[in-house]
Amino acid sequence: MDWDDLRIFLAVARAESLSGAGRSLKLDAATVGRRVSRLEEAFGSKLFVKSPQGYALSEAGDRLLPHAEAAEQAFAGAEEELSGIAGQLTGQLRIGAPDGCANYLLPQVCAKIAAENPGLEIQIIALPRVFNLSKREADMAIAVSRPTAGRLTVQKLTDYHLSLAAHRDYLANAPPVRDKSDLSVHRMIGYIPDMIFDKELDYFAETGAEMVGLASNSASVQMRMIEAGAGLGIVHDFAIPFAPGVVRVLGDEIRLDRAFWLIRHADDRRSERLTRFAEALGQGLRDEVARLERAAFETTLAGL
């Protein structure tokens, strides 16, 4: 048995299909299938059970999985030890993040980290859902709530805030907003109720607003609606500086507190490379949130 066979085994286990594994490995599905068969012959056991839904691990595959992951970590550790350039981070790292964080924070933070580590390739996946680290969809993920299950390591990255906001043009032509009771006559913008994937995104439960007139599963799309003067909505304070004309409303009455959490696979805690990247990411996010929230506050003051 060699490491390359185990690498293919892990790819099939995570993708649950030969074609999916082939795409991640840049191999055709037939080659992946032959390599899996060769590994099964070497062990004398079936490692996968094929069904219409795909390839699921057999009992023998379940037993092999932690050993294959340990081999993967050992190989990655050797690469980290031997390929580093004067203490710089190298190779590819993939981060999964909710679209608000991915759109308004990660570009600046990752640009700075990349500039300090020219040999590092950073990939950002922006999706409004929870990432599956066990399938290696990403090396690490940022979430809006702390997970309570799974073989994961979790650390708090930073607190952040959200506020009710609207464009100045909308406020100039709409009924006044003096307190929460006035919201009933305004069009509200928010998440599609049955597509809220995390309870921390159920913002309107805390505002008293009863109905969303315009909705999207994307925080960025919601901000574009608000910027277009379509109504009021809850937005990240750190996103306001990117939307000219958008200001906080009822700032003393409606302000939500949230946090970003960094999630990693438990087996990655021994990776110095991932730990160093996580430290740089955390510091960068804290600095950027503070800078942008300060700018959002100043923008609102300027509009009064």
UniProtKB/TrEMBL annotation:
Has keyword Transcription? yes
Does the keyword Calcium feature in the UniProt annotation?
Answer: no
Which positions make up the signal peptide? none
Short name of one Pfam family: HTH_1
The residue ranges of the HTH lysR-type domain are 1-58
What are the alphabetically sorted keywords of the record? DNA-binding, Transcription, Transcription regulation
Family indicated by similarity? Belongs to the LysR transcriptional regulatory family.
- Supply the name of the protein: LysR family transcriptional regulator
Which organism is this entry from? Thioclava marina
At the highest ranks, the source species' classification is: Bacteria, Pseudomonadati, Pseudomonadota, Alphaproteobacteria, Rhodobacterales
